[in-house]
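In full, the data.
>
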Amino acid sequence: MATEVKMPQLSDTMSSGKILVWKKKEGDQVSRGDILAEVETDKANLEIESFFNGTLLKIMTPANSSAKVGEIIAVIGAAGESVAAGTSSSASTPTPPAPATTPAPKAATPSTASVVATPPAAAAPLSVVSGGDRVKASPLAKRVAEQLQVNLSSVQGSGPNGRIVRKDVEAAAGSTSAAPSYHQAAAPAYQAVPAPAPSFSESVQPGAGAYTPLSKMRETIARRMQESVNTSPHFYCTASVNMGEALRLREVLKELPEYKGISVNHLVIKAVAYALKREPRVNAAMKNGQHYQPAQINIGIITAIPDGLLIPVLKEVDTMALKDVVFEARAAIERARAGRPSSTDLSGGTFSISNMGMFDVENFTAIINPGQGGILAVSAVQKQPIVQNGQIVVGSIMKATVSVDHRIIDGVMSATFLKHFKDALETPALLMA
């Protein structure tokens, strides 16, 4: 019996996805775990895996088309099996237009399957990829390339694994003397002008700056951060942690092959899981007007990438050994920074960590990720005078601030969480249990 493949929700913020390329074509054999397609979401380009064995009978959403989460994008079944009428003509599934049998005139209406509107025939072409080749580029880089009329196939990427980022496109545009100004390129394609209009930059005073459209990722970040501060009354608690013993443990463990690459952040992740296990009321959220208590402790690690932020999630961290935390966290962060997170990396988080210690930040507060009830802001480990056994000595102090949704998490819960977090790092043998 044929099975419908629906657009999955690949991140907590995803509502729709654009099929960039199908890795399989109709008639191909498909096994469980095979990559079916590459999808552009609001955060990253992700791959869709097959959960079924069989033949790819029909592609419902062609490349360069979008589908909402839950819409049918393909059908898998037995070879030669016909696709059921209810499947192929589902009301929730957009049917791609039939290909033209004769060459379309230049003035023909653009295909509804295209996500980017075709400019008028008189306008300069806005193609960013030559010959249909796939180019590794961030969503923002693609958008800016279209507006600056830069062919991405000729741009050398400086991002992870040669990925093209925004600065590469701008550099390429700047090196082309004939390149139009950004503001001219950004003018709506449908706007009729009898004569060349001055660019926006010519209509403002010198030194007034310029406007740049937000990438999909930045739009999502902006929307969700505003949603968080508007709907969740934030409450903050800060603790100072003596990291002396934790740093000594790290020095010992980093010489062992199974702890290769261990960092302070890995100890922090494990300490957060330890604290949430003992104060589960902080591992909660307000959802649909009700108190929601997750069954797992899934920790999101806020990770900076060239175009914004991604939050890869480690699942059930309280059940993981420290060495597994080191391995899994490194792998997830590397995938995120390379722009290739797995389909499960960006969803399911119940609590998040934002660590700015590598930037020598002394103290800060973080905004709660919508859908969660708390986030921990971790600062740099700094040498400070402390009193120990009645003597003033030099200590390694790290400040950590927890932000919680005060509708469901109060000060006592926050303080209890921080106490357990502090205990785990100041007595790091607890992290090895």
Notes: The two ends are 49 Å apart (CA to CA). The chain has three domains: 3-88, 130-194, 233-432. Confidence is low (pLDDT under 50) at residues 88-133, 177-204. The longest strand covers residues 374-388.
